[in-house]
Amino acid sequence: MEPLGYIVHGGDYNPDQWIDTPEIWDEDMRLMKEAGINSATVGIFAWSLIEPEEGVYDFSFLDTILDKMHKNGIKAILATPSGARPPWLSQKYPEVLRVEETGIRNEFGVRHNHCLTSPVYREKVQNINRLLAERYKDHPALMMWHISNEYSGECHCEKCQKAFREWLKKEYHNDLNELNFKWWNGFWSHRVTDWEQISSPKFRGENHVSALKLCWNRFVSDSHISFFENEIKPLREITPDIPITTNMMGTYNGIDYQKLAKKLDIVSYDSYPPFDAEDPLEVAKSWTFIYDIYRSMGGNKPFFLMESSPSLVNWRDVNKLLMPGRHAQSSMLAVSHGADSVQYFQWRKSRGGHEKFHGAVVDHIGTNETRVFREVAKLGEQLKKLGEVTGGKCESRVAVICDWENSWATTHFHGYNNLRRDYFDECQKWHLPFSLRGIPCDVISETDDYSSYDLIIAPFMYMLKTNVEEKIRSFVKNGGSFVATYLFAVADKDDMVYYGGLPANGLKEVFGIWAEESDGIPEGREGTAEYNSKEYKTQHICDVIHSKGAEVLGTYTSDFYAGEPSVTRNSYGKGKAYYAAFRNDEDFADDFCSDLIKELCIKPSTDIIFPRDIIIRKRGELIFILNFTDEEKAVTLDKTYYDILSETDVTGILPIPENGYCILKQKEILK
Length: 671
Ligand code: GAL
Known about the structure:
By secondary structure, the protein is an alpha/beta fold. 30% of the residues lie in helices and 21% in strands. The strands form four sheets. Strands 10, 11, 12, 13, 14, 15, 16, 17, 18, 19 and 20 form an eleven-stranded mixed β-sheet that branches. The protein has a nine-stranded parallel β-sheet with strand order 5-4-3-2-1-9-8-7-6, with helices on one face. Strand 1 (8-13), helix 1 and strand 2 (39-42) form a beta-alpha-beta unit. The chain folds into four domains: 8-155 and 224-389, Glycosidases (TIM Barrel), CATH 3.20.20.80; 158-211, no CATH class; 398-599, Rossmann fold; 614-669, Immunoglobulin-like, CATH 2.60.40. Beta-D-galactopyranose (GAL) binds next to loops.
């Protein structure tokens, strides 16, 4: 999608809830302008209003709202309504209701609980989407399509079981022998002789075949994606120039987001960092990882911050208000990492219903007199000054591999340590050393392109997918540095362990090691390993490895494998392959990455000197400096900058207020 040249500032707007008091709609328009809102996401949950009975349509409310929005200079992100269907639909076609893993069909209720394969539901969704596209294709307010809402979950109905079997037939070339072999079904006498003998993994059924679970994950994910493709068909046909997005949820892994992202014109993320509940700096650090995932997922392109709460949420056990200023700061963190929008859930608080106490720009009082409204309006003013950043990229020489399919694989296998896998946490830990140093770092999948990086870190990359061995080999051969950690390249895409010693196949040569055994470390019995004369804790899982030519950089100092290598480096072609054989804590990852950063001369994106608890990020020509601590911090500027928000020149030591931020631009590139 082409950059818009301005930051989209908007949010979920559900005027359909105020159908009986349309005077509120006019007030909404007035207040939106006052808050600097330039877009609103409409129609997400409006199906029961626009199709109150099967085949009976009433678009009058949307017509009115879109016209009002256009008149007031507010663009529409128009949603397709499949996230919540009208009651008549489930009543007439019960097959659209989702069946749980227990085999019990849900009743009508809540939202997001449709069957993913139901032909009736797909037809109804496509029909309403087509009508929306035909009706609004030329509407000047229409800016973007928002497909459904937070696709998630799975359905175990008979139709889905049948579709699963068809999916398996395709995957295994209609050959049960191939499936039996790949699933290692000789084990416990599970050889199947008829496709009908296979069904989804269930608590009271088959749940110990990890290949089945992986296939089910892939099938469910593909079902969501094909549901999405069914939804967008009429939109692509009728409105080929209107970009399409769908909103996603952090590291939710019920869908392979890295695969879904490739189908979108722009990636969107609903972001609810728990600033109210946890140490703000720690939250900010972990959110740098999530934002980097979202930026990378779309191919190092901007993403939309599709939802965020301007104050509190209503779904944590206890919902504390965000402190004044935190929402704006949190939004700037997103913008600094690639967000081209700041959007809210929700514009106006519902009067009734499940989310009436969830934060909103407009509270029940209905005016501009609230703290939250004022803060949103102030942020709106600030965002207006940042238009040039849209489309701006972050060029990274470093990437961490965090692969959605590997997150499934590392959950399913049994062995070593069945309690501690924490795949995403592990990836985040290896991203942090770069993030803390202001060094841009992408977060990519195993199969993404490696060619623009100098350093790639692959934490806990247990699953080595087809052709990835060759990618790693040529990356290193051509001069790249690749870091792998414990349980690396153990199994293939069907979770079959590679024969011939680990890591798989030719990777033993690339890394110059052989990983002979792996050890599960119980909590409280952590061991130690030494690296550069410093001792580190070894935890959760360790590999016992042998050097087959690699230089030993560190050794274990506890347990019977004391003295064996724990960290190695192997020169291969023009590059280097590193192996960190133990699960470690942040200390080791930080020290080890610090050495790599020096060795490879990887520089932060600015020459500003800043303390470790400041987050600094350059996007395009703008430098965002964020302080998530309760104390004022100072950074040392390397030259004179222009402070975009205060509109003054700054030089020398620049104080960054507690819980505050500052956005700078180099003087010489001021337009
Ligand atoms: C999101 C959802 C919104 C709203 C919000 C509340 O996950 O998409 O519709 O429910 O949560 O935080």
